[in-house]
Design goal:
Blueprint (H helix, E strand, L loop, with lengths): L2 H4 L2 H11 L6 H4 L4 E5 L2 E4 L4 E4 L2 H4 L8 H13 L11 H13 L2 H4 L2 E5 L4 H16 L3 E5 L8 H6 L3 H4 L9 E4 L13 H17 L8 E6 L2 E2 L5 E2 L2 H13 L4 E4 L23 E4 L11 E5 L18 H16 L2 H19 L6 E7 L2 E6 L16 H13 L2 E2 L1 E3 L5 E4 L7 H19 L5
Parallel strand pairs: 3-15, 5-6, 5-7, 7-10, 10-11
Antiparallel strand pairs: 1-2, 2-3, 4-12, 8-9, 11-12, 13-14, 14-17, 16-17
Helix pairs in contact: 5-13, 6-13, 11-12, 14-16, 15-16
């Protein structure tokens, strides 16, 4: 096969469709063949350049091929350091550990243990749930509707998306799934502080009721902002109450910070908005600098592993640790969490202003540079909270229109009708303006003549 054939986008996409499994997802809806990238720009084999608001599902905090990440990886290679060391101690690993501990909430960092897992966030979730069950001697788990924690057994059981669980016949494994409070589509039909209070009382009464049917829980696992679930921030007061309840009932609270961690939400960690210090934090994506790496950090009292209790061949990826160290330091030294907050606030404000002219935008929400636009059927009647029916068909049209205009975005939410933006934290104000205009133009174009 010649070079021209290898870079022919139509041929490459056709070969991918013929050879890869039907489980592929992004490739179905984003027929782009990336051949080069820097920062927020992706250059395709078709000669087009795209603005990337997917960022490797949020793993590229500094965008593509950031100089400090490239230099860190090159330094490891040039030094002849081992790339794969299982769980052996190395200077590179020690530097990563020291850097991460220096950025964690102080109360957790002072009493922390760290476990390197297999290189995916799902494996880290699996490890955290397993450790909580061993430490408490209980088997249940409290999770939330709309949650997404991964595709391995325990992680998938904790995930709220039934379509993701059912085909694999994944057992719920004692999972009690509770409503996740929100304003726009409040599960209690109230919204606001009243909805949060009911959610807290709901949890409390389940814990106190011996007839609730709840398997005694080993832990409660929560995302500070639900990502795949539709970019829904956990209300600060509710998260604080949830943390207090977990402590009162002697169970660890696990914060799944796989997507929210390292400045994405406008704070270094998603839980920082509520001032909560979890008992366990699940970390992946951005902490590897775009390379595969996952860890759990937890209070020392839970360090009850037996030797080899949760292992993984690739838990000693030196290139990922070097890239992660460089990324963490750059985020901290350049105040990218603050920049994420400012740019995110500005973008959400501008999207909210556009709602008057674009009624297909039902809600704008998120934190920092984790932004969601809930797309709705503007011609339908609203419910008591003012929320109109989700419009997944329209959302797919918007995604396609955005790609046609050179913008890569993805969808999420309960009905796949939330336009999700996860740009790199290094996005400039000019790039943010371009993203805003492309998103609004795409929604306007897709809405023209559309009916659900």
């Amino acid at each position: 096969m010649g070079v021209d054939e290898l870079h022919d986008p139509e041929g490459l996409l056709a070969r991918q469709a013929a050879r890869e499994s039907s489980a592929r997802s992004y490739a179905r809806h984003l027929p782009v063949v990336p051949v080069r990238a820097e920062g927020m720009l992706v250059h395709g084999a078709d000669g087009r350049t795209y603005l990337d608001c997917l960022s490797g599902a949020g793993s590229l905090a500094l965008g593509h091929n950031h100089p400090v990440v490239v230099e860190a990886v090159r330094k490891v290679l040039d030094a002849g350091a081992p790339m794969h060391v299982l769980d052996l101690a190395t200077p590179i690993k020690d530097e990563f550990t020291e850097t991460l501990l220096g950025l964690l909430p102080g109360e957790l960092a002072r009493d922390a243990r760290m476990h390197f897992c297999g290189p995916s966030g799902a494996d880290a979730v699996e490890a955290a749930i397993k450790l909580a069950r061993i430490a408490t001697g209980r088997s249940g788990l409290v999770a939330f509707t709309g949650a997404y924690h991964g595709m391995t057994a325990a992680a998938l059981a904790a995930t709220g998306n039934v379509s993701a669980r059912t085909p694999a016949r994944v057992p719920d494994a004692g999972v009690t799934r509770l409503p996740f409070p929100q304003d726009y589509r409040c599960p209690y039909g109230i919204g606001g502080i009243a909805g949060e209070r009911i959610a807290v009382e709901h949890v409390r009464r389940l814990f106190d009721d011996p007839g609730s049917g709840m398997t005694p829980p080993a832990a409660v696992i929560v995302e500070p902002v639900q990502g795949e679930g539709g970019v829904i921030p956990a209300p600060d007061g509710w998260l604080r109450s949830l943390s207090a309840l977990a402590a009162a009932y002697d169970m660890p609270m696990i914060a799944d910070e796989v997507q929210t961690g390292l400045g994405r939400t406008g704070e270094l960690w998603g839980v920082d908005h509520a001032g909560v210090v979890p008992d366990m934090m699940v970390l992946s994506k951005a902490i590897g600098g775009g390379l595969p790496l996952a860890v759990i950090v937890y209070r020392a009292k839970y360090d009850v592993w037996q030797e080899g209790a949760h292992t993984g061949t690739f838990r000693g990826h030196q290139l990922a640790m070097a890239a992660g160290t460089a990324t963490m330091r750059f985020v901290a030294e350049h105040s990218l969490a603050e920049q994420s907050r400012k740019l995110g606030d500005k973008l959400r404000s501008e999207f909210e202003e556009a709602m008057a002219e674009l009624p297909a935008i039902g809600d704008v929400r998120g934190r920092g540079l984790m932004i969601g636009l809930d797309l709705v059927d503007a011609g339908s009647a609203a419910d008591v909270l003012g929320a109109r029916p989700a419009a997944p068909g329209l959302a797919r049209r918007v995604r396609a229109e955005a790609l046609r205009r050179g913008l890569i975005v993805e969808l999420g939410g309960r009905h796949g009708a939330v336009l999700r933006l996860l740009p790199p934290l290094t996005m400039t104000e000019l790039e943010a303006e371009q993203v805003r205009d492309l998103v609004l133009d795409s929604i306007a174009a897709a809405s023209a003549g559309w009916r659900s």
